[in-house]
Amino acid sequence: MVLFMRIFLTGATGYVGTAVLDAIVRAGHEPLALVRTPETAERVATRGVRPVVGELAAPESWVEVAATCEAIIHTAFEGTRQGVSLDRLTIDGLLDAARRRTEAGAATTLVYTSGIWVLGDTLELADETAPVNPPDLVAWRPSHEQLVLDAASSAVRAAVIRPGIVYGGARGIVADLLKEGGNGLIRIIGTGTNHWPCVYDRDLADLYARVVANPEAQGIYHATDEADERVEDIVEAIAEHSKTRADVRRVPIAEARTKLGPIADALVLDQRVRSPRARTLGWEPTLHSIAGNVARLLEEFRDARAAA
Ligand SMILES: NC(=O)c1ccc[n+]([C@@H]2O[C@H](COP(=O)([O-])OP(=O)(O)OC[C@H]3O[C@@H](n4cnc5c(N)ncnc54)[C@H](OP(=O)(O)O)[C@@H]3O)[C@@H](O)[C@H]2O)c1
Fold this sequence. Notes:
Strand 1 (about 5-10), helix 1 (about 15-25) and strand 2 form a beta-alpha-beta unit. The chain has a domain at about 5-165 and about 200-225 and about 270-285: NAD(P)-binding Rossmann-like Domain (Rossmann fold, 3-Layer(aba) Sandwich), CATH 3.40.50.720. The protein has about 300 residues and is an alpha/beta fold. Helix content is about 40%, strand content about 20%.
């Protein structure tokens, strides 16, 4: 029996969080969405979602509300110099909310969003038991995952979701490639012979919904479409679908590091990843390739940009 839950969601306006919000609304749950401004609050309220106006940096603005919820899903991340310390502060707040519930005799499900880059280069197919070997950009992430996993108890169900590179709509790394294709020049960092583990946004969101709904779900879940696509194949397919065939430029890693910083090393990771634990929840990605779905993804990209 599926239980309808009250769910506190951070990052509800973000790329991952928007998809998760849609999925949990569709599943009949009652989301309470952390938003930063009254304007955003109004926007989510028109969708029948209860906004909680607050800030990751001010846990007092949301911990009490989070403590009234059966499940807490954390997808927010601030892409600034403070991002990592804010994520740590947020985890402390989420654990505080879970502790308050435990003391009141209530159970909690905690879902933390990590990312597949924590695995580093994968020498073999990597499932959820694979050791981590993060590049500098996400060297901090495994300890944050562990803080959440360590909270597991008879009253707390703790799960970590590691999405692959997300595609779909008009946001994220793959949408940037689609945009570059439209502008006639797509850049590949490094040789492009490396494999990216990717996941369609709606499929990813479906995994979050399954994790909260399944009383047995806890621990680490990978979310990847298992297509093992090479970056150069993704880019070629996008270039071919551009109105006039886009040029492709390979940017040497040293140059990319100078221009982009540590994300350059994450973009050249060679990763082939499997998600068997997610599949035990009945999760089955509906899209299995970017290259094979470029026409559809371009249509989604244009629709999402027009709607923004
Ligand atoms: N996108 C991917 O391909 C991908 C892949 C793997 C893992 N992940 C992980 O998934 C998480 C979310 O990524 P994303 O791509 O969805 O990011 P995003 O689109 O930038 O969304 C970030 C969300 O966090 C909120 N936020 C940022 N700072 C905040 C603050 N100080 N207080 C309250 N809310 C704040 C933003 O709210 P505003 O709308 O107010 O800015 C937004 O809703 C990150 O941890 C990321 O590493 C992403």
